[in-house]
Design brief:
single chain; 318 residues; alpha+beta; Alpha-Beta Plaits; six-stranded antiparallel beta sheet; five-stranded antiparallel beta sheet; 14 strands; Nmi/IFP35_dom; N-myc-interactor; Nucleotide-bd_a/b_plait_sf
């Protein structure tokens, strides 16, 4: 009985020690869990900030441009003669967006011939320009240009394939393929021998593959073609092409020779916008005013102008 009591005391003592170790371990795990939860909350907050920043950058660098119809002159430096006339037409178009700056009213842009002159002017807090019987203080600032993009479009146009759309599902699919082949084989309508016809009844489109190149090109220029179904129907035709966007680059920069003059107040003595521009040009050409030779200058009195930059000159567009 004494041995059993002693054994019971040892077991109880061991149980108490084990319970204490487990409780200590639970306490440590609880503290560890609290630290991890705090870290998780911080990471989630940082993630939301990064997502917001990423969305802003995506929106900032997205291209929204409605390209107007423009007459384009295509030139080729190296013309490669190919015996295989069946090869598709391959072209590469390089698209380059010029950096821009929005010039507000009461601001001017000056481009100097030397970088060091622009750097000297930017070190000044303000410049006092003499105009007629008075003077005005202008603030030179560094220009912040909008981001610009540059990319290439690699285009591949088939000489033998013709895209057909707006085909009414008026007859069964198999018969429709036959009617399309017959219609596009008519030489009197500008067609030619058809090698293969693909037709999708669900969206009313198809692809006509001609045996000889050139037929698809001439028909694609028409944009419309008459096919014989239950009756004569005009369908829409066009070229089949593939394109890839390559070498996409976005960049931001600061012009080293161009500065912005801000806070240019209207002066009653100077009525003409060009007169004030001349006063600005005279002032910033003088070496005594830390100026130098000016390549171009543009002052906006009351309207906003868009300034386009390129490698060797500045162009202003209303």
């Amino acid at each position: 009985m004494m041995a059993c009591l002693k054994n019971q005391e040892e077991c109880q003592k061991e149980f108490i020690e084990t319970t204490k170790e487990v409780q200590d371990e639970i306490l440590k795990l609880g503290e560890r869990r609290k630290v991890l939860l705090d870290k998780l909350r911080r990471c989630q907050t940082e993630l939301e900030v990064k997502k917001t920043e990423s969305a802003k950058l995506k929106q900032k660098f997205k291209i929204y441009a409605q390209i107007p119809d423009t007459e384009v002159k295509f030139t080729c430096q190296n013309k490669e003669e190919s015996d295989d006339n069946n090869q598709p037409i391959r072209e590469v178009f390089a698209i380059s967006q010029r950096p821009t700056v929005l010039l507000q009213g009461g601001q001017a842009l000056i481009t100097f011939e030397e970088e060091k002159v622009a750097s000297q002017i930017l070190q000044l807090a303000k410049c006092s320009v003499s105009c007629e019987q008075t003077s005005l203080d202008v603030k030179p600032k560094r220009i912040k240009m909008d981001p610009a993009v540059k990319f290439e479009i690699h285009l591949r146009v088939s000489k033998k394939d013709l895209h057909v759309s707006m085909v009414p599902p008026s007859i069964p699919e198999e018969r429709m393929r036959d009617r399309l082949e017959i219609s596009f084989s008519r030489a009197s309508r500008g067609g030619g021998e058809v090698e293969r016809v693909v037709y999708d009844k669900n969206n009313g489109t198809g692809k006509i593959t001609f045996l000889h190149p050139g037929v698809a090109e001439s028909l694609a220029l028409r944009e419309r073609y008459c096919v014989d179904l239950d009756s004569e129907v005009n369908v829409q035709v066009g070229p089949i092409y593939q394109y890839q966007l390559r070498k996409f680059q976005t960049f931001c920069g600061t012009p080293k020779r161009t500065i912005l003059l801000d806070d240019i107040d209207d002066i009653d003595d100077v009525e003409d916008e060009e007169d004030l521009q001349d006063h600005l040009e005279i002032h910033f050409q003088k070496p005594s005013n830390y100026g130098g030779e000016i390549e171009s200058i543009k002052y906006s009195r009351g309207k906003a102008l868009q300034a386009f930059f390129c490698e060797d000159k500045m162009e202003i567009d209303n």
